[in-house]
Amino acid sequence: MSAMTSSIKQAFSEMTSSNAKIANLQRDTVDNKAGVGLTTDFGVKISNTDNWLRATDGKNHIGPALLEDHHAREKIHHFDHERIPERVVHARGAGAHGYFKVFDDRASKYTFAPVLTDPSRTTPVFTRFSTVQGSRGSADTVRDVRGFACKFYTLEGNWDVVGNDIPVFFIQDAIKFPDVIHAVKPEPHNEVPTGQSAHNNFWDFVGLQPESAHMVMWTMSDRGIPRSYRMMQGFGVNTFTLINAKGERHFVKFHWIPELGVHSLVWDEALKIAGQDPDFHRKDLEEAIVNGCPAKWKFAIQTIPEGKEDTFDFDPLDATKVWPEELVPLEVIGEYVLDRTVSEYFPEVEQVAFCTSHIVPGIGFSDDPLLAGRNFSYFDTQISRLGINWEEIPINRPVCPVMNHNRDGQKRHRITKGPNYWPNRFDAGKPVPTNEGGFPDFPHVVEGIKQRVRTPKFQEHYNQAQLFWNSLAPHEQAHVIAAFSFELSHCDDPIVYESYTKLLNNIDFELARAVATNVGGVVPEKPLRPNHGKKSAPLSQVHYAPSKPAIASRRIAILVADGFNGTEVAAVRAALASASATTWIIGARRGTIKPGEGLGDSISADHHFEGQRSTMFDAVFVPSGAEHAKALAGNGRVVHWVREAFGHCKAIGAIGEGVDFIRTAIGMSELQLHATGSSRNVVVSYGVVTAGSYTAGSAVVDALTIGPGG
Ligand code: HDE
Prior knowledge:
One of its GO terms (cellular component) is cytosol. The protein is an alpha+beta fold.
């Protein structure tokens, strides 16, 4: 997909998917290309935008630039003020539009909110994904939590679920948020590191704040390095409430389960992509949508009836705990789809502003202490980032009417006719507070003693960290050990890495031993506490593998040099395209690559071998062709490509002489590769798929689909 086709496809995606919010945004959307000529911001046409007005002698001498040049001054002034404060956390992000639909009205037993109960509705949504630690210009693939912030533009007002890709949080009480964020952000003396938690201050803090242990286990797992925003689960994390028509209340947690399964990069890939393509996740989201693969999630809820919340050995209002699905099953109630890219990043993705206190009738808060602080913080931060009228900004304004007596403030856009106070003497005082759809505050007894305390269940921090560890597959556990080893190796203060390796022994003895050995920590002699041995399958991302291998939206590199087999490449490309994968020709030069004699058509390479790396693709295919295979084998960059892809457990497919090349490149004796030539059978060994020739049944393609996905 060249840059040109990408922009055409993007325009097409914008034309085809529309909804009430997109229509609402059209009010402020201008097509710059449709203009009659270049103008100033005050609408006067411009004849010259390349030269500042000067005093000259009319011949060769150029004198001073004149302040009189209002056009030059406007252009520079505007430029001088283009930046706004970046988000204090979650500064780096990407976003897309879409819709949400429930399958039926089954959730009406919990809530009367139409967005969750009316299957005839399609609710427009906007989602912004983000990393937490890095600044706006940091890389996408760093080890971090990913934000998963969703705005539902419902007919009853905006409902924001400002979630993450990890179901628990580092702290239980909002008052600790500035501490945990200061600790993880770059250190104050030198502003290092960017996009990393691998530094003394973070590990110092989490070592002294053991309530973070559970979430730290998640961030050190493969969840911290997702392959794609489209392949992450989403979690509302905090406990909200649902209120039904009978006035009954349930505690609720919100979940998003990706259609493509939950997949991650491997750490070596994540590190390399951070340099090779820092926009990897951003581009992935855009590319999938413009290529006709909308990102899709099942939307699910977990509910606990009011009155049952004290029956668990954890407190359901503690954001450092999951509600294990064995105890509180998930109920899938709808589908969440992102099918439209943004038209301009700043007004949409940078200016979108979420607020946990944006809820609609039928949904309520709980006494989760983290949520209470968030409800204060989000509104507050938007004021310094966007100003008090932030809810009027096109991406943030609701699709339903907004009528009230709030007025003025910087950057007020709306012109409201009528009185600015209530009650008043005009038109029966309209707009008036109403019980017809008015937000009902749930009547709820509040009594007790004001104290700065945490209840006993809030003081247990290791059971669920251990549950998470126990539930991981062996390869996932190995990745956790490697991640801790990387992070703690970057801490040079022994107090820090020794403390943390001691803490790990509360979670698992073997984990603590392995990490302590690797990083020079205190290797424990015996466990600090017995392992309870419990597991919960849905905590492992292996649990979310799609029932059928899926290759849709995956990126396949096809390596070619002159003399390649064009017939095979055409057939493999067609088969992959029909499975909605994208193929990219990586060639000896960007431009036309010639096939071998009688071996089909020439092809135009999208990139030169130096232009891309194996890390940017999910699988690699090498066709047959003697001259081509020889050229590939003679090129160190290409040999490295194949070795690296193999090391990252990518699927590799090859045919005929391409198999010889793979054999040379990988040089693994235990790898069974199909012999060149004769037989048409396909051999799959260690994720490498090889065949004598391309078979009509596109077996190579079928086998390739099994491989990628990590
Ligand atoms: Fe946030 N968080 N947060 N957070 N958070 C912000 O709001 C805050 C927390 C999350 O794409 C800020 O608009 C406090 C949990 C996401 O625009 C700020 C506490 C979860 C985003 C803020 C938390 C999140 C933010 C910065 C502890 C997962 C990006 C900019 C009580 C459920 C939203 C902004 C976007 C952003 C405060 C904890 C997720 C400062 C005080 C738990 C996805 O207001």
